[in-house]
Design goal:
Blueprint lengths: L8 E4 L5 H12 L3 E6 L2 H15 L4 E5 L5 H15 L4 E4 L14 H29 L2 E6 L12 H21 L4 E8 L5 H14 L3 H11 L8 H11 L11 E4 L8
Parallel strand pairs: 1-2, 1-4, 2-3, 4-5, 5-6, 6-7
Helix pairs in contact: 1-2, 1-8, 3-4, 4-5, 6-7
């Protein structure tokens, strides 16, 4: 299948590691012109080098962007458009909020999680839409969590704002279909990333067991019997954001090895 990504302008936020990095690499392998962003220039520089070497694609660049800063988001979109003439694909991604229950958080925690995990997505979409509408074509993927289908224990902030992403995506899919702009939400289950490892460590600390025991128990609950690999997640994202997807929009897809039992 031709994914029609060669030379396409792709923006990936939170791209210096984890799911963002894996997704950027898969786009680079398909010949896309990929603009990476995150808060750390050192990490971005290392990731850029790794992706160029792994993919053989020289068209990988980066810009520092804190997605809780609206001016930096505007600069991100401007830079992507200047670099490659337009923006064809946006991969909205952000680090997860801290674990905890309702009693653990004050207003400032809720406000920060809202800015990081929902408002940043709104702002970034706002900035890329003029370029997509001008071309009458575009793909937007919002990376959320498996909590979009089934809430996760001890992750109330994530459960709250990831659900908001689904509502945003579904509403926008109705508004943007006439412009051939497709938007979908993708929720990772237990994928082997630093984020999941840190959550396992926190759970282990709370329960007085080892992280290895937490992972072993979690893997037994997954029908496929293992954590997913970042590249497995990334390949699904790349398809949804590609020219191979011409009719799927407004959907929420969980990539979790069969873990979530909700319909």
């Amino acid at each position: 299948m031709d994914l029609d990504l060669n030379g396409k302008s792709v923006v990936v936020t939170a791209a210096s590691k984890g799911l963002g990095k894996a997704t950027a690499l898969e786009f680079a392998k398909e010949g896309a012109h990929v603009l990476l962003s995150s808060r750390s220039e050192d990490e971005l520089r290392k990731t850029q080098t790794e992706i160029k070497e792994s993919s053989g694609n020289p068209h990988v660049s980066y810009i520092v962007c804190d997605v809780t800063n609206p001016e930096q988001i505007k600069r991100l979109a401007r830079t992507a458009a200047e670099w490659n003439g337009t923006i064809d694909v946006l991969i909205n991604n952000a680090g997860g909020p801290p674990a905890g229950t309702f009693a653990d958080f004050e207003d400032q925690d809720w406000n920060h999680a809202y800015e990081l995990n929902l408002l940043s997505f709104i702002r970034t979409i706002r900035e890329v839409l003029p370029f997509m509408k001008k071309k009458q074509s575009g793909r937007i993927i919002n990376i959320a969590s498996s909590s979009i289908k089934q809430t996760l224990d001890n992750l109330i902030l994530s459960n709250t704002f990831r659900a908001g992403i689904v509502g945003l995506s579904k509403s926008l899919s109705q508004e943007l279909a006439k412009d051939n702009i497709l938007i979908n939400t993708v929720g990772p289950g237990r994928i082997a990333t630093d984020r999941v490892a840190s959550l396992d460590e926190k759970n282990a600390e709370n329960l007085g067991v080892t992280p290895e025991e937490i992972r072993e128990k979690a893997e037994k609950s997954i029908p496929m019997g293992r954590y997913g690999e970042p590249e497995e997640f990334a390949k699904a994202v790349v398809f949804l954001a590609s020219g191979g997807n011409t009719y799927l929009t407004g959907q929420s897809l969980v990539i979790d090895g069969g873990l979530v039992k909700a319909l």
